[in-house]
Amino acid sequence: DVGEEDCSRSGNAKEDVDYFSVPMVALNFHVRRRLALYLNPRSVVATDWTGLAEEMGFEYLEIRSYESQENPTGKLLQDWEVKKPSSVGLLLQLLKRIQREDILEDVSPDIGNARQLRHSPLLSAPGMLTTATTTAFHVGRTSRGADPGAMPELFDAFICYCQADIGFVHEMISQLEQSSSHLKLCVFDRDVLPGTCVWTIAGELIEKRCRRMVAVISDDYLVSDECDFQTKFALSLCPGARDKRLIPVKYKPIKKEFPSILRHITLCDYTNPSTKSWFWNRLSRALSLP
Q: What is the reported pTM?
């Protein structure tokens, strides 16, 4: 039997007990997406979706069948929510059991919304919750003076960077947008309208509005939660497109260890004197590929 007292994420016993009365269908699109970002990538240092599936009681052959899914975490949650017992509270407990406190900390604000939905009429109408949350996710638009009724603006590349590296980003804009390359870059501080959810709009931009992502690697990048999220999100998309989708760029020496998740992708190195003269042309060609 599952003990409700084990789910002590917030330290409020009554609040935690309430989560066990919240059905999984109340877990909205945004939370499911966040869970997939964390759990889909196979990892040797943190428990992924396979460990969660084992805790949920799925058998070996069932777990193997999910490996062919583009979003195994999403499919896992969908199948588990019709099992008994299953609830948001139990999901939180299982995440704690597999030692994924990082996920609990990140999604806790949004989980509260699920608790408030447990008496919502949306829960009694099949498909309504998914439709409502998906629509809300696509409301935000990014463009410079775009017509709200127009199609979302599309970009050649999303630039993943830290504020400390904004000078290099300006040079990138000059070399790739304001030159014969005529590429269209998505630079968060310039192109994203104020008031939108940082995590939600970044995910939509990377997946649906940008053909590729350029990660500006620096020591500041390596300790940035936002850059970590954006990079892992890009890598969690269709595995067959990983090498094409994300391009890491090193523009200055790095003191910290280069991220292991990017070591299989060819680096564009601005610090190499022997290839620096080719750097912008090489990057432009990579971003222009179909």
A: 0.52
